[in-house]
Write a structure and sequence with these properties.
- The chain is an alpha+beta fold.
- The protein is 68% helix and 10% strand.
- The chain is built from 22 helices and nine strands.
- The strands form two sheets. It has a five-stranded antiparallel β-sheet with strand order 1-9-3-7-6, with no helix packed on it. The protein has a four-stranded antiparallel β-sheet with strand order 2-8-4-5, with no helix packed on it.
- The N and C termini lie close together (5 Å).
- The model has no long low-confidence stretch (mean pLDDT 82).
């Protein structure tokens, strides 16, 4: 596990550097929302395919071919699946790119106009009334397109059923070619629920004027469509990368599959630095969003090339061939369909959150930045454990060693809890110092840091649940049971949707983060219930789990007290903030592991043995 987690950790660290630059150049602007929404689809496929789901179906079948029929037959099977994946996803890409506007309406519907009014061709003027929800919005935009102009006659803001009239003179003019745009900036901390009023719309030049009212920047939707057309090819590349990763993982080559995401982050870093220094792009978030999209495009092909040449170097020649739908291929796709859904449940939940978050400007950006932080323990622990446990449990079950498979899962659960519970507690208690230090630079403001920190705390409630799911799923996949996780995934998505909708109105993007955590724990509960006749916690796990909770509580109380003492450090420049965060992290680690060893929840020799064995 050390190799997988090490490279994944390196990728996350470089990813943090990348995201610091993103925060600096993009902040939580409409360009940031557009890029993060555009990157959402291919990035979800990277995590689902590249971090376990495809392997969940492919590895057991490929391993069986390798064990029973030898490398030649196994590589023929691998070449067949590679060719079918390439053809299917190429066709999907060719179809999807022209339809990207429709796809964007599905995954970011909030970017579209909240209300639209048309004036008939035979009318010179038309007075229209508008009324829409604005809770959590920053600005309201009035946009007239297709010629014509408009006059906002009156505006009323509603709070607790009380209306307050707004001076029309407070509207700001936004300069943009061929469009009439007025913007009203909502006052912070006023918590108004609705905005309503009347607009007089006027035709000109024999054109039918159209008035659109937006809760987001009016260019966000079209920019998302443009960026999505660039980034969508990453989906094809990552599916093929995941396939070759499965081949390499089966023969216990974990290095390059785990290192491939590093190339993505390196491409971003080079792209941002070169664009800023050599191309002179400064202060233009939209241009930097385009740079980021092209970095995704290039990185996909770099990762694909890296995995392909690694396979060749180890004598694993995957050829593009005429596909044949054999019984083995049918079996793979039967297992792969529900397996992708089940192993990607967390990503599906995040996509649901993104859809809902699109209705508030900046919410997608806040969720993205906070997601990047809590993904660090998930990447280092959960994904590493999931990748290692699946071949291990599969091998033991095929050898008739069910007891050994169960023991492997218990040690995986124990190690996961030992590392994720304190991580969860720390991120709940000190989210602002972490977010402020990482991202509060350039276009990323103090307000952005506060709002992002709150969503980080919400996501962090579910960190142990996210990782436990990665550890428990091999108990199904190793026995070629993908139907049960698929059903559980469906229930979990439904839970996430219900709680996201319930909490979004009152808590905004923070509610989405909390809903995702609730869904993660529902997922774990159902997975454990489904394994009740196969896996049960052993005595060692039962005795150590309460001790881990106690040690985490001690660490949490210490961090809370220390944060209060050094709170002023986070009102200064970067290096002082970095010193404060470093102090919190170091003290937290020392106190936690001191408590762990004193309570005998683990020992240094056991930790070394667990990592070495993995």
């Amino acid at each position: 596990m050390a190799t997988v987690s090490g490279f994944t950790a390196l990728s996350r660290i470089l990813g943090f550097v990348r995201d610091i630059l993103m925060g600096y150049f993009l902040g939580s602007s409409h360009a940031a929302d557009a890029f993060f929404a555009a990157f959402k689809f291919p990035n979800i496929f990277r995590r689902i395919f590249g971090e376990g789901a495809f392997n969940s179906a492919f590895v057991p079948l490929f391993s069986k071919e390798l064990t029973e029929k030898g490398q030649k037959e196994a590589m023929q099977f691998a070449s067949q699946t590679f060719s079918i994946l390439a053809i299917i996803l190429s066709i999907l890409t060719i179809i999807a790119i022209p339809l990207m506007s429709w796809i964007t309406m599905v995954h970011a519907p909030g970017f579209k106009a909240a209300q639209t009014f048309h004036i008939e061709s035979n009318a010179v003027t038309k007075e229209v009334s508008f009324d829409l929800k604005i809770k959590g919005s920053r600005d309201i935009y009035f946009v007239v397109e297709n010629g014509g102009s408009a006059k906002v006659k009156n505006i009323y803001l509603t709070k607790n059923n009380k209306e307050t009239e707004v001076l029309v003179e407070e509207l700001q003019t936004v300069d943009e070619k061929d469009k009439w745009i007025k913007k009203y900036t909502l006052l912070k901390n006023q918590n108004h629920n609705r905005i309503k009023g009347n607009v007089l719309l006027t035709n000109s030049e024999n054109k039918n004027a159209v008035l659109s009212i937006y809760r987001n920047h009016p260019d966000t939707f079209n920019l998302t469509v443009t960026l999505s057309k660039i980034t969508f090819i990453y989906l094809l590349c990552m599916a093929l990368v995941a396939h070759m990763s499965g081949v390499l993982n089966t023969i216990k080559i974990f290095g390059m599959p785990a290192a491939a995401p590093v190339l993505l982050n390196m491409t971003f870093l080079v792209g941002f630095v070169c664009s800023s220094i050599f191309l002179g792009i400064k202060g233009d978030a939209v241009k930097f969003a385009h740079v980021a999209a092209w970095c995704v495009f290039i990185a996909g092909f770099l990762q694909l090339a890296a995995l392909y040449f690694t396979c060749l170097r180890h004598g694993l020649r995957i050829k593009f061939c005429k596909p044949k739908i054999s019984p083995k291929i049918k079996r793979l796709f039967i297992l792969m369909g529900p397996g992708v859904l089940a192993a990607g449940i967390q990503q599906i939940n995040l996509l649901v959150g993104s859809v809902i978050a699109s209705f508030r400007e900046g919410a997608i950006s806040y969720l993205y930045y906070s997601e990047r932080v809590y993904q660090l323990p998930l990447g280092m622990i959960g994904i590493g454990l999931g990748v290692i446990l699946l071949p291990e449990v599969t091998k033991r079950l095929r050898g008739g060693d069910q007891r050994g498979a169960i023991t492997s899962m218990n040690r995986g659960v124990e190690l996961a809890m030992l590392l994720t519970i304190p991580a969860s507690v720390a991120l709940i208690i000190i989210p602002y110092p972490i977010i402020s230090t990482l991202f509060e630079h350039g276009a990323f403001t103090k307000e952005d840091a506060n709002l992002t920190a709150l969503s980080l705390a919400g996501f962090s409630l579910g960190i142990p649940g996210y990782v436990l799911a990665k550890v428990l799923q091999p108990g199904y996949f190793a026995r070629e049971n993908t139907k049960t996780p698929m059903l559980i995934a469906g229930v979990t998505v439904l839970v996430n949707i219900i709680f996201s909708i319930m909490l979004f109105d009152s808590l905004g993007h923070i509610g989405i983060a909390i809903a995702t955590s609730i869904a993660a724990w529902v997922n774990v509960s159902l997975l454990m219930f489904g394994l009740r006749n196969f896996w049960k916690p052993d005595e060692r796990l039962k005795s150590r789990f309460p001790k881990i909770l106690i040690a985490s509580s001690i660490m949490g109380a210490s961090l809370w007290a220390l944060q209060k003492t050094i709170a002023e450090m986070f009102n200064h420049h970067f290096w002082i903030r970095l010193g404060g965060v470093s102090l919190l992290v170091i003290v937290g680690i020392i106190i936690y592991f001191y408590a762990v060893f004193k309570l005998k929840a683990s020992s240094l020799s056991e930790l070394k043995a667990d990592f070495k064995k993995s």
